[in-house]
Amino acid sequence: MNSETVEVRFRHADGSWRWIEATMRNRLDDDIIDGILLSSRDITERKEYEAEARELAEEYEALLNNVGDAIFLINVEKREESVRFEFGRLSPSYAAANRNYDGGRTGPDTA
Questions:
Q1: Mind giving me the DSSP string for 5-40?
Q2: pLDDT given at position 110
Q3: pLDDT one-digit tens code per residue, 58-88
Q4: Secondary structure class of 97 (helix, strand, coil)
Q5: Would the N or C end of the chain have less CB density within 10 A of its end CB?
């Protein structure tokens, strides 16, 4: 079965724009259907989320590539009777300016 999926924008009756994902399947060889099967769904929320995530990633990348200070991501994980600290550098410009920086490390477990 041949199929093709497309994403298109349509104007809604209320004037807003909607994203629709449509999949078309050639079912001409199917004796029961004998035609082209089209299924579609509204993917507007997904497209909006993807656009927001893309914009946010671009903002973070610009910030991290241009900041002169160190920015770290720290994760503290508690396991039974110990605590594990992990951190990693997020700002590439800090590493370039500080040649002795080791790129982040995992600290020892502490009780």
A1: EEEEEEE-TTS-EEEEEEEEEEETT-TTT-EEEEEE
A2: 45
A3: 887 887 777 766 666 677 777 777 777 676 6
A4: helix
A5: C
Residues in the chain: 111
Asked if residue 40 lies in contact with residue 22, where contact means CB atoms within 8 angstroms, the answer is yes
The 3-state DSSP class for residue 87 equals strand
Q: How far apart are CA 15 and CA 18, in angstroms?
A: 10
Both tokens assigned to 108:
């020892």
pTM (global) more than 0.85:
no
Distance CA 21, CA 42 (A): 6
Chain centroid to CA 30: 39
Residue 68, SS3 per DSSP:
coil
Asked if pLDDT for residue 97 goes beyond 70, the answer is no
Residue with tokens 């610009």: 62
> Average pLDDT over the chain, rounded to whole?
80
